[in-house]
Amino acid sequence: MIALFTVLLVISSLIMIMLVLLHKGRGGGLSDMFGGGVSSSLGGSSVAERNLDRFTVGIGIIWFACVIALGLLMAYQGN
């Protein structure tokens, strides 16, 4: 059971890294301080960006559930 959650955690972690890297930068970071934050939001988020956001949140929930499940399994493994 622990091996299943570990594999699921690794897979969801890799997918999460890929999804976060696919997101477009929204500014407001350190680059804005040096003049790199020239962006215009003409129409808000596109459908693709909203779907990417939803998918990222879904994978994040799966990742979080795997972390909690692994923690509980390892804590109560000896009992």
Short descriptors:
single chain, 79 residues, mainly alpha, 3 helices, 68% helix, 0% strand
Please describe what this structure looks like.
- This protein has 79 residues and is mostly helical.
- Helices cover 68% and strands 0% of the residues.
- The protein has three helices and no strands.
- The longest helix has 29 residues, at 47-75.
- It is elongated and about 50 Å long.
Ends apart, CA distance between termini: 15 Å
- The count of strands amounts to 0
Mean pLDDT: 84
What structural category do the secondary elements indicate? mainly alpha
Instruction: Please give the share of residues in helix.
Output: 55-70%
Report the portion of residues in β strands: under 5%
Query: Globular, elongated, flat, extended or rod-shaped: what is the shape?
Result: elongated
